[in-house]
Amino acid sequence: MAGAGISTDAGIPDFRSPGTGLYANLQKYRLPYPEAIFTIDYFRRKPKPFFVLAKELYPGQFVPTISHFFVKLLAKRGLLHRHYTQNIDCLERVAGVESDLIVEAHGSFHAAHCIGNKCRKEFPQDWVREKIFNDSIPHCDKCNSLVKPDITFFGEGLPARFFDLLEGDFASCDLLIVMGTSLQVHPFAALINEVQSTTPRLLINRERVGESKTRGMGFDFDGSFAGSMPHRDALVLGDCDEACLLLADRLGWTDELLGLRAAFIDKQKLEHI
Fold it and tell me: What is the pLDDT along the chain (273 residues), one digit of tens a residue?
């Protein structure tokens, strides 16, 4: 499971950090409240602020972080059952993680649809990108409704893929790694409770989050509710990339991890010659 914290080293701000987070730096859009920029009712009335922001965040402008390549390395080694992400930046895809291993719980820029209830026509990513980078608000050529990237806004349901896969995925999980998320947005935050009661769980984050107040709900880093059960929750406080490098070092994977990123950078350089 991953949140915005795995993408901050790529230059993409997280949402909630005081002072530096995305929600703390939206004054220029003159929103009634920060979350309005990702609220479907506000978008229907005033889509321009979202599309101006989308131009800044659009995939293709950022290089995946060490954390993204660590996920790729898990997949390469056949250890990744599924990667659930809150992020809309598509950086897992850019790093080379196969789409069938990814659940974009809050959607992404990877596809786009008309928001007309009776239309829902799909539009290619390149078409939407061209509109956004030309400072044009995309409208459907069939019904003239707005066209929106398939990002899940407040007021919309999560993608069907999220619900279709979560029960089987978490029931069969033998290690849950949670990276760079405040665990404040549900139902994503509650996924940490979906694994078996004996499944080890590791949180990598700048601060402690998701801790339990009652038995069986949330992390129990101190073993307060463990009883006779093995203590299964672990915590690494700090930067996600540094923690992934530490894990790689302990596993003897450092050269392989850094090699994945170096190969990506070299490929990018060749493409821009």
Answer: 999 999 999 988 766 556 555 665 567 777 888 888 889 999 999 999 899 888 888 888 899 999 999 999 999 999 999 999 999 999 999 999 999 999 999 998 888 999 998 999 999 989 999 999 999 999 999 999 999 999 999 999 999 999 999 999 999 999 999 999 999 989 999 999 999 989 999 999 999 999 987 777 899 898 887 666 668 999 999 999 999 999 999 999 999 999 999 999 988 877 766
Burial of 38 from C-beta contacts in 10 A (0-12 / 13-18 / 19+): buried
Distance CA(110)–CA(104), nearest Å, equals 10
The answer to whether 112 and 150 are in contact (CB under 8 A) is yes
Antiparallel, parallel or unpaired: β 233-237 and 83-85: unpaired
39 and 155 in contact (C-beta within 8 Å)? yes
Token readout for 223 is 């073993």
Residues 6+ apart with CB under 8 A from 246: 236
CB neighbours of residue 169 within 10 Å: 16
β-strands 176-179, 201-205 pairing: parallel
CB atoms closer than 10 angstroms to residue 55: 14
Q: How many CB atoms lie within 10 A of CB 29?
A: 15
Neighbours of 77 (CB within 10 A): 11
In the numeric block, the tokens 């004054």 are attached to 27
Q: Which of 68, 81, 106, 110 is catalytic?
A: 106
Active site residue 186: no
